Amino acid sequence: MTASDGVRLSVHIDGREDGPTVVLVHGYPDNSSMWGGVAAELTAKHRVVTYDVRGAGQSDKPSGRASYRLDQLADDLRAVVEAVQPTGKVHLVAHDWGSIQTWHAVTGDGLRGRVASYTSISGPSLDHAGAWFRAQLTRPTPKRLKNALSQFLHSWYILAFQFPLVPDVLWRTGLLGKQIQRMEPDAAPPDKSDGLHGLQLYRANMFTRLSRPAPKPADVPVQVLAPTGDAYVTTPLQTEVARWVPDLRIRRVVGTHWVTRAKPAVVARAAAELIEYAETGAESRGLRRSRVGAGRFAHKLVVVTGAGSGIGRATALAFAAEGADVVITDIDPATAAETLKLLEDHGVAEYTVDSSDGEAVHRFAREVRENHGVPDIVVNNAGIGMSGPFLDTSVEDWERVIDVNLWGVIHGCRAFAPMLAERAEGGQIVNLASAAAYLPSKILTAYATTKSAVLTLSVCLRAELAEHHIGVTAVCPGIVKTNITNTTTFVGVSEEEQRRRQKESSKLYARRGFGPEGVARDILRAVEKDTAIAPSTPEAKAALVLSRLTPGLLRAAAKLDLTP
Questions:
Q1: In 3D, which of 107, 120, 373, 150 has the Cα closest to residue 250?
Q2: Which of 243, 334, 406, 550 is in the most buried spot, having the most CB atoms within 10 Å?
């Protein structure tokens, strides 16, 4: 097709003729082939349009700088939309410079009334960016100055591209293309011609727009996919646009600048969710939780195991009070059903699951994914108490406490962590350890061993999952008034003595006066701050400090017999 100034644009259409029309706009130094993976994911349900922007691929490559101004680029997009769909609305998905020119189009008049939704990846409106920079520098705070400096450092190449000859020579010799691939392994080998002609995008627009911004609002549903490891566009620059976009969703996607190539299924899924919402009004949980202003846990999907009572129930209720949708499990179906009733509208479902049964936990995780989606937060809480001397602890006792307290956490992590990593939008795993993990006692050998293992597992897993932006928190409560004392096994004593010790322990914990609601508050705070180790209760916090400063003192105290 031919643009308004006579430049010929190469346009390709694929997919279902009766599906919603999606126009994919590539960036620099790419051409439309960059969308291959995303387009393949979308064609089953959508009519997919790709085109080479002027200066790239099979489209004409005008030499004059004026041919690459944003007004002309936006008019090219308008012409493509009118050619492929003369009436009705289309959906736009754009990356990098494709996003920059698409922002210009959706905030202008040329496509007014023709756009149903817009998904932007790694590219801001230059007018919004100029206003953003002014806000960081004219109303400075340490955070704003840090954000501005970070973006300046990410944008070093913009100034370099303004110089005559040097960047052109670097493209012709292939050095610049090789440098891009070294920095971004997910980028395809760039075409020299695309790189050379695309330099005009920077020379025609950058300084004029950034120095004299005229930001305009977007009146369409917008979704910003911000790669967590973008080497060129920082997350604040991409996402702090709410003042100009009333209907805005922000999703942080784990990946680099070319996440469109590396994770096409992730990009296509997010885009398809916004398209479905614009077409039918059906809003996925992913869209609801990413809506700007929704609240810290609003519409997040939270899984809590062992939620029939105590800390598990309190945690489920605390998340629900913050707007989260909660799925719960317990080995006791009656108590799980009671918790679900207390959750009211925020209780999604309850399942009867034995956390020590790996097959059952994995089956539960698959059902959650199929019926409710991938959770945002997983709380592995199920646990039992055990007290008594090592010499009186049988193999069966060891197997039971390890199966529930340690294997239950391992099963939960193994079942859900791969889902969170595959979704590539981060998440949080919370594992309930105990202050006993770092506060040794001769009467808690088996219990403390399992909780120490949970703490170490959590710290190691946190390091492993960091690249997926999945946080792992070990919560370490101290003395908390819960039902665990009524069910704790005291080894090496008669049934009558065991009941007496359970009763006395319950009285002691009740006098302490720290309820499970306090632990739940600490869990929510730890999730919000992505805390690695979160002691709960004053004695747990004090013991953690002492374990680091005076470990010998705690080893000496471990010899005390605190049996009730």
A1: 120
A2: 406
Dist CA 518 CA 337 (whole Å): 23
Helix ranges, 173-284 (H):
175-183, 192-211, 235-239, 259-262, 264-280
Q: Tokens for 536?
A: 């709960």
Which residues does the chain have with pLDDT short of 70?
Answer: 564
Write out the residue range of the structural domain in which residue 221 sits.
11-290
**For the chain, how big is the Rg over CA atoms in Å?**
28
Contacts within 8 Å (CB) and 24+ apart, 559-563: 559/442, 560/441, 560/442, 561/442, 561/443, 562/441, 562/443, 563/387, 563/443, 563/501
Specify whether 386 is located in the same domain as 286. no
Annotated active-site positions, please?
447
Q: Give the per-residue pLDDT at 564.
A: 65
d(CA 259, CA 184): 10
CA–CA dist 315, 72 (Å, integer): 55
- Please give the pLDDT value at position 439: 92
Helices and strands, number each (H, E), in the chain: 24, 16
Report the CATH number that the domain containing residue 225 is assigned in CATH. Answer: 3.40.50.1820
**Among the listed residues 287, 295, 298, 300, the one whose alpha carbon sits nearest the alpha carbon of residue 117:** 287
**Other C-beta atoms lying within 10 Å of the C-beta of residue 13:** 15
Map residue 400 onto helix, strand or coil.
helix
CATH code for position 342: 3.40.50.720
Listed residues 257, 290, 323: the one ending a domain:
290
* pLDDT of 231: 93
Residues 269 and 139 in one domain: yes
pTM to 2 decimal places = 0.90
Spatial CB neighbours of 81, under 8 Å, sequence gap ≥ 6: 23, 90, 111, 114
Of 52, 58, 71, which is closest to residue 5 (Cα–Cα)?
71
